[in-house]
Structures are given as structure tokens and as C-alpha cells.
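In response to reviewer comment 3 from the previous cycle, which asked for concrete evidence that the modeling workflow produces usable outputs, we include below a single protein chain processed end to end. The sequence was submitted unchanged, and the resulting C-alpha cells are shown without manual editing.
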Amino acid sequence: MSAVENVGGPRGRRELPQHDPLATGASATAESSGALPSGSPAPARSESPRQSGLLIKIETDRRLGHEWDEWDGKPLPHGGDFRAGNTGRYWLFTAVGLMLVAAATAVIVFLLAPRLAALQPSLPRALYTGIAALSALSFLWLALVGASYATRRALLPGRLAERGLLLKTLRLASRVGELFGVQRDWTDHAAVLVYNRLAWTRELRVKANELLILIPRCLSRQALDGVMDIAKRHNIAAFVATRGQLARRVIRERRPRAVVAVACERDMISGLHDVAARLPVLGLTMQLPNGPCKDASLDLERMEEFVRKYLKP
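The workflow returned the following C-alpha cells.
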């Protein structure tokens, strides 16, 4: 089975194969911003060199992503809306995580010190000094990232901030938070807020056919229609990424210069970790009133802001 994606621009239209794991129990239909009644004939394909965004809609029952394997079926805290928190969790848990990493490394050196000293008497001391220096640099980096966030100014190049080192700390903060009994979604949302603030400081403008909207399969009908309305008005391609692997393939084949991505906090952290180092991304998290992976909602006004941020006037 194959699904058709509108790729816009001179590349025209290509068919993306969908392998059996993606197609099992689902039917793929290409839709514009309005819903197609059942049994209606498909609209004729336009031959325009640039076309408005076309959506691949995967209609299926709830199918949990791997990030939700442990979900027990109970309602999520706060109705699945994790926006009430602030970024303090990210800063706190990242700082604690950096300390824990330094402490664990020092313990390993301590345990190996007799053997290391047999090789070179000064080696343990040199390693302790190196650990202390790296720890100091780590906290200096975290302070500069914090200053960038507070002042809304890019004090560090992207590779040392949201497109590089920051991505390495996203999962670290979540894991440390879980050690202290904080559900990872709260920490992940705080991390996405920090990431977006830093990404927003970069000046980048692209053409409509150079911007890609990635959305998950679990949006509600209302949210889906809203996304398609934005895509149509701005003439941007939108794509439903049913799996992370498919999202990466779409990015590889379309080669956008920027991406506006929609996902839950957990999938957003995974997606940013995989993609944000290669191209600019702004990430919009969803609300999950019916639990994960079904009937999700999102802030459409904020999404429009993200789209306008990247589009050339």
C-alpha cells in the first residue's frame, strides 16, 4: 500500500511507500483541509508547480507509541495538559544530573585508582583534575544557556546550544526528575520551552515550499482541520508522521530548511534529539485529554506563530 504526499515546488509529487508495520489495521487517505465524505471520488490532482499542503491521514484506533509502553490506561495528570509547569524543573534536574555524572565518574576513578597509579603515579590526580575542570565548564555552559533564555539573546552558537549540547541534556533532565518522583512529561515540557526559546532567537526565514509541518496521527478532528487550514493558507506541506522513522524519511526526501513539529512531550524530546541538530525545528506540544495517542488537541494560535516565525514576509 502506498500513500501520496504533496511535496510542492519543482520536485513535484512522489509516492511514499508504507510498509506493513505502518499499514496494519489502518487505511491511508490523502485529504486537503476539508474532510472527504465517505465514498466521494478523490479530487483531481493539480498540475501547479507549487501546491498547498496535502495531508496523509492515518485512520486507526489508539495505537500507543513506544514512549507510552508503560501507560496503565488511567487518566493522565492535569487532564494530559502539562503547560502549567515552568522551566525550573529543567534547570534544576539538569544541574543535578551534571553533578551526578561528575560524582559517578569520580567514584569510578577512585575505585580504579590503585591500578591507575601502578601505570602512572600521577594519573589518578590528573583524572580528578580533569573531572573538576569539565564539571566547571559544564556549569559555566548551563549558566550561559540560562542567560540566553532569560535575555532572549543568542549568547552561544547553535552547536553549543539548542542544536548541539542542549539536546544531550534533554533526556538527562527527564531521568533525573524521575529519580525524584517527578513524572517525565512535566520535565519534558519544561525542556521543550527552553529549547524553543533558544531556537526562536535565531534569525531564519524560508520560502513556503522550504517549510514542513509534521503532525502525529492522534490529533482530534478539530485540531486536524485547524492544522490543515494553516497549511493551506500559507501554502505549506503538512505530513502525518506515524513513526519517528517515517518522519526522518520525509525530512530526508523533502529536504526542508525548517520544520514546525507537533507531538506530545515524550515524542517531542525524542524527535528533537534525532532531528534538531541537522535543521532548525520549533516544537509545539499537545494536550492529551483522553490519554496518549488519541484525540489530542493543540494551541493553533501558537502554531500559526511558529509558522510565521519561519516564513519570509
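Residues 88-199 form one domain. We consider this sufficient to address the reviewer's concern, and the full set will be provided in the supplementary archive.
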